Amino acid sequence: MTGIEITVEGGSTAVGLFAFGLAFATIVVGVWIALVAYRGYRRSGERSVLFLAVGIALASTVRTSASIVFSTAGASSVVTNAVAVSSQFAGLVLILYAIYGRPERHGGRAVAAAVLGGLLTLIVPFVVIDTFGPNESLVEAGLNGLPAIVGAFVTIQAYRGYRRYGQRPMLLLAVGLGLLTVGSFGTITGLYVLTTVSDAGALVVIGSVELGGLLAILRSLTRE
Amino acid sequence: MGEAGDQMDAETIGELLEDEYARSILAAISVESLSAEELAEECDASPPTVYRRLNRLQEHDLIDEEQIPSPDGHHYRRFSARLEQVTIELQDGSYAVSIERTETDAVDRFTKLYEGLR
């Protein structure tokens, strides 16, 4: 492999290659989602749609790609996870604001709230590790709980939209957001409990769940 | 949502409701949601006339629209009235207009917004 090197301990080369393929697909699908969302905003030109588009991009694309880019660049897993979780959290705040707030009038406040929330989730793990000792996987699993709670709420709202209007894109959006927030949290927590899984194996399992989520969102955005 | 910050001046609301077509469109879609074609028939107006009024009403957030997917892939829109009450208050030499609109809930907004993004 040239340029990019993914180092994992334990697990065979096949698993490593599979993990690499997953990472690559995740970035491609993620960027694709961001592009489609941006095009959607350009077409509508509405500010609330912009908030929704940026929110979805942060909660899906940035979260998944940041994990890959940061860990590949050699950042520690705490840093990687903190960046991924905080960008997703900020994205979910923007989605909620697009739905509940009035982006046409007070957009600035929501951006400030999203940035502040994101920064807090970014700092929390370091404080926790500093205070309670370096049990990194536990902190990571715990931190993922925050976007998982907000994500579950957004997922339920999307699902209710599907139930009320019978629109399949809303169902796919619910599945995608659910996998990227609750699904990802459940998997990370599950793997933490099952300590027998190798690092590479864990990477593959989490990567698959997140790629599944991204594919559902992409399908929901592009489906006629 | 008729809270402050939603202010419209007396002239604007007057102009809006002065129009006969706008009034009959609003009245029709306060009963049931209708498509522009159905409205054209209902109000005995040409489709461009109906669309112009709908756009104006939409600018002022007095109507709601939902996208209805149809089997042949062409979405069409149905409109419903959001206007419930207009209050014009004359106090200390100025008019204050407040408008009460039908609440749309978060699920409605989410679905509609996402439809706008796709």
TrEMBL record, chain A:
<keyword id="KW-0472">Membrane</keyword>
<keyword id="KW-1133">Transmembrane helix</keyword>
<protein>
    <submittedName>
        <fullName>Uncharacterized protein</fullName>
    </submittedName>
</protein>
<feature type="transmembrane region" description="Helical">
    <location>
        <begin position="200"/>
        <end position="218"/>
    </location>
</feature>
<feature type="transmembrane region" description="Helical">
    <location>
        <begin position="171"/>
        <end position="194"/>
    </location>
</feature>
<dbReference type="Pfam" id="PF24365">
    <property type="entry name" value="DUF7521"/>
</dbReference>
<feature type="transmembrane region" description="Helical">
    <location>
        <begin position="49"/>
        <end position="72"/>
    </location>
</feature>
<dbReference type="InterPro" id="IPR055943">
    <property type="entry name" value="DUF7521"/>
</dbReference>
<feature type="transmembrane region" description="Helical">
    <location>
        <begin position="111"/>
        <end position="129"/>
    </location>
</feature>
<keyword id="KW-0812">Transmembrane</keyword>
<feature type="transmembrane region" description="Helical">
    <location>
        <begin position="15"/>
        <end position="37"/>
    </location>
</feature>
<feature type="transmembrane region" description="Helical">
    <location>
        <begin position="78"/>
        <end position="99"/>
    </location>
</feature>
<feature type="transmembrane region" description="Helical">
    <location>
        <begin position="141"/>
        <end position="159"/>
    </location>
</feature>
